[in-house]
Amino acid sequence: MAASRMPALWLLLGAALTFGVAVSPAEGSSSRSRRHYDFFVNVPRMVKHGLQIRKADYTRLCHRKSILTVNGLFPGPTIYARRGDVVTVHVHNQGDKNVTVHWHGVDQPRNPWSDGPEFITQCPIQPGASFTYRIILSWEEGTLWWHAHSAFDRATVHGAIVIRPPRGTSYPFMKPHKEIPIILGEWWKGDVQQLLAHALRTGGEFQPSDANTINGQPGDMFPCSRDGMFTLPVERGKTYMLRLVNAALANEFFFGVAGHRLTVVGTDASYVKPFTTDHVFLAPGQTVTALFTTHRSSRGLLRNTRYYYMAARPLSTNPLVVFDNATATAVLEYTDAAAAPPAGVTPSPDFPTLPATNDSAAADAYAARLRSLASDAHPARVPRRVDERMLVTIAVNEIACAPDEHCQGPNGNRLAASFNNVSFEAPRHADILGAYYHHRHRSRSAAGGVRVEDFPNNPPLLFNFTADDLPPELELTARGTRVKVLEYGAVVEVVFQGTAILGAENHPIHLHGFSFYVVGTGPGNFDGDRDPAGYNLVDPPYQNTVAVPKGGWSAIRFRAKNPGVWFMHCHFERHMVWGMDTVFIVKDGNGAEEKMMPPPPGMPRC
Fold this sequence. Notes:
Elements: E1 19-25, E2 31-42, E3 47-49, E4 52-54, E5 58-60, E6 63-65, E7 69-70, E8 79-82, E9 86-93, E10 101-104, E11 130-136, E12 142-148, E13 158-164, E14 178-187, H1 192-202, E15 211-214, E16 231-234, E17 239-246, E18 252-257, E19 262-267, E20 270-277, E21 280-282, E22 287-293, E23 307-315, E24 328-334, H2 360-368, E25 388-399, E26 414-419, E27 422-424, H3 432-439, E28 478-480, E29 484-486, E30 491-498, E31 507-511, E32 516-523, E33 542-543, E34 545-548, E35 552-559, E36 564-570, H4 573-578, E37 581-586
Parallel strand pairs: 2-9, 8-13, 14-17, 16-24, 25-30, 27-28, 29-37
Antiparallel strand pairs: 1-2, 2-7, 3-4, 5-6, 9-11, 10-12, 12-13, 14-15, 17-22, 18-21, 18-23, 19-20, 19-22, 23-24, 25-26, 30-35, 31-34, 31-36, 32-33, 32-35, 36-37
């Protein structure tokens, strides 16, 4: 069985990629390690980069096509760092379209200029241009990831970020023998950008993927996919760390390893109280750090086999939505077990037991087990008082079709999505951060007219949000570039309320610039008088992406101590494109270290 392994950045030195580490004084009183990377983003073809000619067409499902990549790799290279490091990444866009890159889960203190979402914190990097991102790691320790934040580019432009403890410190558990990034994703036979353009032109649904993937490979249950299948070699009696990332555009996943239980030790670069489980659950954007220990002797191996399937099965919570229900597979191989099968003999690995594709209760039960470690070294500092409360409804909607259009969404309209019935529309000729920074002292709107500071704290209408028989008039929404302004240091509580408009479903909501405590979650409509009494204010999970349950709600708290412009959106990519987004603008504080940094040189221009 052929082995396919994930690339590590430090193994790819050459004309197209440089890596180096230098120690130098950093901001404030501490010192940080400085790490430098070069990313070349290109549509794979015969392109000359200095002394290197690269061609990175990819074949999946018996079909060959060119995809957007970083350094010719899919998935892209892994970034390795330690807590407190400053990582510099030079992105060279040698493709044929605009692109940006986001460092998912990195707070970027005072530095929104390197956060990455196009037209929110920067204009995109145009073909032939370059931009240097400065990634400031602060408290983060564990598994994060990076991805394109332009159009649907993150379908293939993504990779893991591994953040280890600072030198001289250790994990809050025994150091594993090895650590392995496991990236869950999707593959389309067609051109993803063309599929997006078609959906936006017609106002209809986006075509689901043709396969789900583990480290870029669908696995041997798909045609023409056996030889490249990802294989993880292991030895008996050792502990391994899986750094799991859900990079999918549309699918949530259950993941498990046959014959082995997983011990969850972290989520979204924050440690949790360890617990053991047969499977984990990841919504798009979320990460999980999990350990497993291999069997010590051949007697522990099922049927004395040396092969075990790892599998990722999608979860779909809205029966009205067509989705890719295929299970992706990879293989765990004991290299020191029984002899390999003879040539031409196909091994039969054992398969993990995973929940069904509609088992939302299993996903909710998994999330309920997440608790912050809350130790002296990794405390949980949950805000007790709240300065600003928001109730934000989540909905997939319709926008009325123009008279001269033929729309393919529900009722002949366009599909849309919203927070509090505002379908966010990003500007296309300026970015909100640049406008805010350059105009905040010059005009009343403080942003050169690209935004309106009136995103509502509550939905415009209170109704039975999760009822199955909602009136059709609730389905319509309207576009707007409406943002929410926060005072520096304010404690914010946001209750995300799911709705049944056009069908109830889970929603993975991601906040840039902050992680937050998920203090509560529950079914049905949030009750502000009753439900806060059940909040966990002791050791709630600390995350950057929360999976709001189908027909339910989730409550988060964060302290707005990171000045800048920060995007908040659903991590189902089509929902983000349809407008399930908004922006928080956090004002500067009074102290020198409470103010947003000035823009770096070389910011891309629109």
